[in-house]
Amino acid sequence: MAKTTPTAAKNLLTTYDYINPKPDAELVRKSIVYKLIFILGIDPKDATPADWLNAAMFAARDLSTENFLSTRQIHEKFKKRTVYYLSMEFLMGRAFTNSLINQDLYGAFEQAFKELGLNLADISEQEADPALGNGGLGRLAACFLDSLATLRVPAVGYGIRYQYGMFKQEIVDGKQIEKPDLWLDNGMAWQFARPAKRFPVSFGGTLDTSHYPPRWKPAEQINAVAYDEIVPAFGGQIANPLRLWTAHTGDLFNLASFNEGDYFSSMEAQMKNETIANVLYPNDATAVGRELRLKQEYFLVSASVQDIIARHLCRYDSIHTLPEDVAIHLNDTHPVLAIPELMRILIDDYYLPFDQAWAMCQKIFSYTNHTLMSEALEKWSVDMMAQLLPRHLDIIYKINHHFIENVVRPQGYDDDFIRRVSIIEEGEQRQVRMAWLAVIASHKVNGVAKIHSDLMVSSLFADFAALFPERFTNVTNGVTPRRWIAVANPKLARFLDKHLGGSGWLTDLNQLNQLNKLVDNKDIQNEFANVKHAAKVRLAEYIQREMNITINPNALFDVQIKRIHAYKRQSMNVLHIVHRYNQILNNPNADWQPRVFILAGKAASSYNEAKQTIRLINDIAYFINHDERVRDLIKVVFIPNYSVSLAELIIPAADLSEQISLAGKEASGTSNMKFALNGALTIGTLDGANVEILQHVGAENIFIFGNTVEQVQTLYRNGYNPYDFIDNDPELAQVVNQIAQGAFSPDEPHRYHKLMHNRDEFQRYADFRSYVNAQAQVDKLYRQPEKWYRAALVNMANMGYFSSDRSIEDYCREIWRIEPVSEQELPRLA
Ligand code: F58
């Protein structure tokens, strides 16, 4: 442990004048000790690992702060057109290791901790994993921020700093228990508080339409206060901000009651409002707490739009130049209220005529759709919106009127068409269709994989595609190789450095295709097999330590990790596990390939079927893992509390990646890319980005099964009946009956009756046989290691396309029209 005393440390280091040249281990050690003493006020001899982490994070933050500040200066100096990425979710994962790798400081920090008698990897494990998102959509936003910074694109992310992120999942007696996620409890050294950056956000009240523009007299106001998180570029001089808003009590609270002198009720309203930034909706299924959710969405966009305008006016003295300076991207419909909010400000505060404000909006906004599933499409009741945001509802009506009268009617469409495209859905409860508003206001609308974008145009937005065919496009998702190889799988990174002649692949992932020349080389296959094996040992140790389950790293690791949802068909995975178990019991002496089935994922707290699925997986795991007869041939592990950091541990260890959603339902998927990038083979349906992965890796290197979108639609059209499949497949019928009749839940035999005998909306029974056959092919290939590792290398070699750098380049070119900071614009290093 360090012997440094406060007085000795005082002279060590004050500011970041050590940045250039890059600090060595000694300087880093001094900086860490300095932060511990003078920022945290902790004597090194009393410091806990969490204290050391915080000190180290402050030290690392210093090192990117200069880049962060100078990036802002460059943007200002060259008036760089900027994209503002609005998202209710950012699943950033841990910041510390990522920042060290992006700044090439890992070695220096590792050495510094060694000198302090500590281990960097252990210290890094202390960091909370900020889970400010539900799943793929939030993680995509985080990959995109990494790529935006690395590509030097002028960009700001805007989100909410939820006090409680995604709940912490515990498994008790096989059931999911939700606990609060206290990610801020140990402080958050990575973010700067910006108490001066605050904007009032108003709610409720009345609209006085006797004036033009109408006057909104809100009932309540709350302040949005900013926290800035640094998003460091890989290897560069750039760092962009992620600005997260918290709700603070201002002096502007309940205006009406405060003015009437009713201090207590004004405080009450205030307390209620402060809950706005309290929790992330762990809501992947149905909407609950709708009013609070609507308030959160408005809170995000109101603060962000005000901030965007303030930033613009620092550079230009006119609001009219906004569309040249600003692109605002809507990550799904959650931030769509940004459209009426910008309209409101332009009309009410800057006195722009409606048409002019509308023309500006249409140049500024673009929107990504992440789902075609109707239950996930946001609609807000007109009544609620009238209560909470009367001026915005009024503007939405005007937009709708303008759209119908100026765009739709002149083209001769009938009333039925007009009813379908109207932003307002008529019915008992009138609703605002947020996706329609997004499409009507945006100059570009994109899906997230080719098949999804095609379906978007042919189904969900077909009417709009008839009106504006040029508006719709595709940007296939991608993932950042910095997080998903360099941070998650350092041994694989070394392997790639060695065989690709350096680390250029990290910023030019197409370089991976040089591996294609090496895939038949036995030594390289073996070397990769060793990398994989080491990752499997690492995961096996975790599972042993945390769950007390022993798994064999030589078994095939078959992994499905993602939100638990009926369309993702974890229960079809279970059908296969039970089927395999039956086969082994029937034929115990056959030459079975040992497998470990690994699953993880959270179920939305209100989604019973998903929770039952988790329980079923755990019941089956308990039963099979304790059955002596199957020995080590099958193990089933449900790892609790899936998160970005767990994904970093699990993905490198996977042999087989389960991407088994019903065709047409998974917009893209991104874990499919992370797995293939880490040399796992995919078993998957022709859904989402699986289709493009197939095109890139070739049919012999992926296990595709199941019905196509067309076949799925035909089945639906003909009145899908699950018993057509169950009754015609005795092995399937046996599995269904076992589960439904309590073979794995003897204490409550009917526990899974409903789960097995529902209407099978996602056609697991129709795809079962083809899935089982594909699994047999998996076994066969795995028993030929040369072929398996060859296929794994081919997968990696052809994943260049799936870098989020490519996605961001597509967005910059096709959608945002944004230029990165050029070499010439970068400041010269001394
Ligand atoms: C996901 N959506 C898609 N939504 O399901 C996945 O296919 C895609 O790869 C990914 O987006 C990125 O494009 C998703 O994660 C959510 O989590 C919503 C959050 C808010 C409530 C409704 C679900």
Automatic annotation (TrEMBL):
CDD domains: GT35_Glycogen_Phosphorylase (cd04300). It catalyses: [(1->4)-alpha-D-glucosyl](n) + phosphate = [(1->4)-alpha-D-glucosyl](n-1) + alpha-D-glucose 1-phosphate. Keywords: Allosteric enzyme, Carbohydrate metabolism, Glycogen metabolism, Glycosyltransferase, Pyridoxal phosphate, Transferase. GO terms for cellular component: cytoplasm. Its cofactor is pyridoxal 5'-phosphate. The modification N6-(pyridoxal phosphate)lysine is found at residue 674. The keyword tRNA processing does not apply. InterPro entries: Glycg_phsphrylas, Glyco_trans_35, Pyridoxal_P_attach_site. Pfam families: Phosphorylase (PF00343). Its EC number is 2.4.1.1. GO terms for biological process: glycogen catabolic process. It is an enzyme of class 2 (transferase). One of its GO terms (molecular function) is glycogen phosphorylase activity. Belongs to the glycogen phosphorylase family. Allosteric enzyme that catalyzes the rate-limiting step in glycogen catabolism, the phosphorolytic cleavage of glycogen to produce glucose-1-phosphate, and plays a central role in maintaining cellular and organismal glucose homeostasis. Phosphorylase is an important allosteric enzyme in carbohydrate metabolism. Enzymes from different sources differ in their regulatory mechanisms and in their natural substrates. However, all known phosphorylases share catalytic and structural properties. PANTHER family: GLYCOGEN PHOSPHORYLASE, GLYCOGEN PHOSPHORYLASE, LIVER FORM. This is Alpha-1,4 glucan phosphorylase.
